[in-house]
């Protein structure tokens, strides 16, 4: 009963012109860290981390390939800015140390928790004057 679905009638989806189909990966899942059911993404990209705690699972060698057999929890440890892609959250595997940047989810049913993202950003870029004070990382 969603209205914008009618726009799909009889034509290609206008919003996904490039790249491989990631629809198959776009399913809901239960977060391995906070145990909350994470709804499937609705912004056209598949979701690979929990929007509520930002933790992920190590399932990819490269983003989206599901080629890793590690399957352990990945902790959000920082943010990186990629040209053309915007900000991405960096995940660090708690088991094998694999690092991987993942696109932030800012739209759809359950966007990433902005407070957590802001916290990562604060960790990432401490003001030069106060560097070394407060919590260390
Ligand atoms: Zn979670
Ligand atoms: Zn791993």
What is the CA-atom radius of gyration, in angstroms? 17 Å
Q: Give the cofactors and ligands.
A: zinc ion
What share of residues are in beta strands?
A: 15-25%
Output the number of helix runs. 1
The run of helices and strands is EEEEEEH
For the largest beta-sheet, the strand count, sense and barrel status come to: 4 strands, antiparallel
Explain how this protein is built:
With 137 residues, the protein is mainly beta. Helices cover 8% and strands 21% of the residues. The strands form two sheets. The chain has a four-stranded antiparallel beta sheet. One zinc ion (ZN) binds next to loops.
Keyphrases for this structure?
single chain, 137 residues, mainly beta, four-stranded antiparallel beta sheet, binds zinc ion
Short description:
The protein is mostly beta strands.
Describe the protein's topology:
Blueprint: E1 29-30, E2 37-38, E3 56-57, E4 73-82, E5 86-93, E6 99-103, H1 114-124
Antiparallel strand pairs: 1-2, 3-4, 4-5, 5-6
Bound molecules: zinc ion (2 copies).
């Amino acid at each position: 009963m969603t209205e914008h679905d009618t726009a799909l009638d009889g034509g290609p989806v206008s919003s996904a012109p490039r790249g491989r189909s990631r629809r198959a990966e776009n399913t809901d899942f239960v977060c391995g860290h906070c145990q909350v059911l994470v709804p499937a993404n609705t912004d056209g990209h598949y979701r690979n981390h929990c929007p509520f705690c930002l933790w992920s699972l190590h399932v990819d060698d490269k983003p989206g390939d599901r080629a890793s057999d590690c399957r352990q929890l990945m902790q959000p440890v920082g943010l990186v800015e990629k040209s053309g892609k915007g900000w991405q959250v960096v995940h660090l595997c708690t088991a094998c140390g694999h690092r991987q940047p993942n696109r932030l989810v800012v739209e759809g049913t359950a966007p990433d928790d902005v407070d957590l993202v802001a916290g990562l950003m604060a960790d990432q870029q401490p003001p030069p004057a106060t560097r070394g004070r407060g919590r260390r990382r």
